[in-house]
Amino acid sequence: MGLFDFFKKKETAPEAQEALDRGLEKTKEGFLSKITKAVAGKSTVDDDVLDNLEEVLVTSDVGVSTTLKIIERVQSRVSKDKYLSTSELNHLLRDEIQLLLAENNSNDFRKFEYGDHKPYVIMVVGVNGVGKTTTIGKLANKLKNENLKVVLGAADTFRAAAVEQIKLWGERVGVRVVAQAMGSDPASVAFDTLQSAVANKEDVVIIDTAGRLHNKIGLMNELGKIKNVMEKVIPNAPHEILLVLDGSTGQNAFEQCKQFTEATDVNALAITKLDGTAKGGVVIGISDQFKIPVKYIGVGEGVNDLQLFDKKAFVDSLFK
After folding, report:
1. Looking at 51, 82, 104, which one is the last position of a domain?
2. What phi and psi, each to the nearest 5 degrees, are found at residue 2?
């Protein structure tokens, strides 16, 4: 089996679907109850229903521009079909949101060509508190369970807690960790990690980075230095820059995404903590606004609760 071939599974396993349904329960309850109220007393989708639906989507953290895009699509369908009952609205919304996600993730990770990269290098970025280190640990566990050799680089050297947390995750899931003393040069840690990964013939390298959202120039310089050092060891590394966002922060996640995409070439997203919030609509809005594939979602606290993002399964779960 080739590197990451297991990511190409087209169907979500029943147990993963159940975990997804549980993780999105709060979002689903809020979303569907708001839609029910939006159409109360109406038999057809008219301007009032569309206005109410617009409010539902905005308050579900889908975002204003994405909401307007969805409303425009629904409006077009209503005009085309001449008559659309409110009972059909859920089905129509589900279809349009799935189409939107499909368009925005044209370079879907399940179709992404990883080529012959070995080791495959992932640099993980994001602010403190979003679940960045936990996501790294869970991702390492997922890859190790597929018989891939994984090494973690503790390049968030500004916080002793971050280094210790990475080490604990390494012990917990049984993967090697490369670390230096607190305050060490993060680029030096990344360099050592990649060198040792090559020497040990490991399959995947995951590099943690500092979670400080300081000024854009400082962030750009710091991440740029780490990238430049990596390329000295492995050409074109990192192959993936994964931005971790906390789904429970709603609109603040949009701002974080904006800051990091301006600072570095983010090409994948992980959205965490969806199980503890009713703001799961943020997945739809961020995907639409930034045109970056959502690769992973966190739907629980367990080590196996980091899921590969399946657009159809996600939207279906919202409308069950």
Report:
1. 104
2. -75, 165
Express each pLDDT in 3-56 by its tens digit: 444 444 444 467 878 888 888 888 888 777 788 887 877 788 888 889 989 998
Terminal Cα-to-Cα distance of the chain (whole angstroms): 35
Q: How far is CA 263 from the centre of its chain?
A: 18
Range of the domain at 63: 15-104
Whether residues 26 and 57 share a domain: the answer is yes
Asked if pLDDT for residue 114 goes beyond 70, the answer is no
> Using alpha carbons only, what angle is made at residue 139 by residues 137 and 141, rounded to the nearest 5 degrees?
70
Q: CB neighbours of 174 closer than 8 A, spacing ≥ 6?
A: 144
Single out the residue of 77, 25, 23, 12 nearest to residue 50, CA to CA. 77
User: Would residue 19 count as lying in a domain?
Assistant: yes
Angstrom distance (rounded) from CA 111 to CA 173: 27
- pTM summary value: 0.89
Cβ neighbors of 160 (< 8 A, separation 6 or more) are 182
Which amino acid, 156? D
Q: Domain check: are 144 and 94 in the same one? A: no
Residue 54 near residue 95 (C-beta atoms within 8 A): no
User: Angle between the 64-81 and 89-104 helix axes, to the nearest 10 degrees?
Assistant: 130
Question: Where does the chain have alpha helices with state H?
Answer: 14-23, 25-38, 47-59, 64-81, 89-104, 132-144, 160-173, 186-199, 216-233, 251-263, 282-290, 311-318
Flag whether 149 is in a domain. yes
Residue 2 lies inside a defined structural domain of this protein: no
